[in-house]
Design brief:
Number of strands: 18
Radius of gyration: 21 Å
Largest sheet: 8 strands, mixed
């Protein structure tokens, strides 16, 4: 079958949108296909975190720093509606033991290119006047930022369309088209066959299903999380603020419920409150107990929120891989198949770097980072597995 596109991207979340954007900008003919709407999966249920503060030195942090630079560039190119805010992050330690742990992390991060400044208890109150008294101190990370994730995905796809990309929504990929030697050469939906020289699996929590269509294993699992949205408020929270325990929760392998206070304001007024993590499959039940726990932790960090109304709550599923690193790059087991999934809760922040690196692979361009730690086949039996810290 003669290819009608250079590449088909499976997934219209922010990672897939970034892949399409950079590939189209590089001159490739691109098609995007998604089983639902734009940002209908993890992206639409995200807070929009663009963080370096929660990552230990290693391949993920290097990817995050590269992506942070790209987000700053995108903020100049995309409409203001994406709500990019370079507001910085504030990590708060409740006691001196946790502060010591944060200090060790910040020292290690600094050697990798992260800017972090220790802040005294009094200094924290200057940065965040409504913060609860009694905290031991914390660290300020000016490189942390935020974006409105669904709008960011939509505008990246719009820009890709302007560069010639075609987008097909509401179409589930039922099969992969294969060519000589089993090479992946397109996708098939109920409505159409899209032949291409390459297929990019940016299907998020469904990334394992797309990989299986090619006969390869990618052990992506959903990790459920909830977010509370308050009524619109004056800017009572100025930074991305979270408790020190959040760093450990992000790196944890536990399947059980974990919650740690994560609080941030938005340009439109509502305050977003997270974060919870648990592996319960695709169970959609909205847990009142978890929501109450998140609300209590947020009010403990910011007492001013105690009497604020919560307008809504939503849940999403982060695409989790066992070593907490995404799968990025060509799959040696299935020629023509590329993966860009498994970013867990960091997909919004890591999307631009992932998209640009995929486009460089497709065009033979210069690679800014070594993708070996992210190789998709690392989970094969007998294969070595990397980790967050490399």
């Amino acid at each position: 079958m003669r290819p009608s596109h250079d590449v088909v991207v499976v997934g219209a979340g922010v990672v897939g949108a970034a892949c399409a954007y950079y590939a189209a900008r590089a001159g490739l003919s691109v098609a995007v296909v998604d089983r639902g709407p734009v940002a209908g999966g993890t992206t639409g249920a995200g807070e929009g975190n663009l963080l370096v503060s929660d990552k230990e030195p290693g391949p993920e942090l290097a990817l995050a720093l590269f992506s942070a630079r790209l987000w700053r560039e995108l903020a100049e190119e995309l409409p203001a509606a994406v709500e990019y805010e370079a507001k910085g992050g504030l990590v708060v330690a409740a006691d001196h033991g946790r502060l010591t742990v944060l200090r060790r992390l910040a020292t290690a991060q600094a050697a990798a290119g992260v800017t972090a400044a220790e802040v005294s208890a009094a200094g924290l109150r200057e940065l965040e006047p409504h913060l609860a008294p009694g905290v031991a101190g914390g660290f300020h990370y000016p490189q942390d930022a935020q974006v409105q994730p669904a709008l960011a995905a939509a505008h990246l796809l719009h820009a890709a369309r302007r560069a010639g990309a075609r987008v097909h929504l509401g179409e589930r990929v039922d099969a992969l088209v294969t060519g000589p030697g089993g090479a992946v050469r397109g996708v098939r939906t109920a409505r159409r066959t899209l032949a291409a020289g390459a297929v990019v699996n940016a299907a998020g929590t469904w990334g394992g299903e797309i990989a299986a269509l090619a006969g390869v294993t990618l052990p992506v699992l959903p990790r459920r999380g909830f977010v509370l949205v308050t009524e619109p408020l004056p800017r009572v929270v100025r930074h991305k603020v979270y408790a020190a325990d959040y760093v450990a929760d992000v790196a944890s392998d536990s399947a059980g419920l974990q919650t740690s206070a994560v609080v941030e304001g938005t340009p439109s007024g509502p305050v977003l409150i997270g974060a919870s993590r648990e592996r319960v499959g695709f169970d959609p039940v909205l847990s009142v107990a978890v929501l109450a726990r998140l609300a209590a932790q947020a009010a403990a960090l910011f007492p001013v929120l105690a009497d604020v109304r919560v307008l809504r709550a939503y849940r999403g599923f982060r695409p989790y891989l066992p070593d907490h690193l995404p799968a990025i790059g060509a799959d040696a087991r299935a020629p023509g198949l590329y993966h860009a999934c498994g970013h867990e809760g960091a997909g919004i922040g890591l999307a631009p770097a992932t998209g640009l690196l995929i486009s460089r692979l497709l065009t033979g361009g210069q690679m800014e980072l070594d993708l070996a730690p992210f190789r998709p086949e690392r989970f094969a039996v007998g294969g070595a597995s990397g980790g967050r810290g490399g």
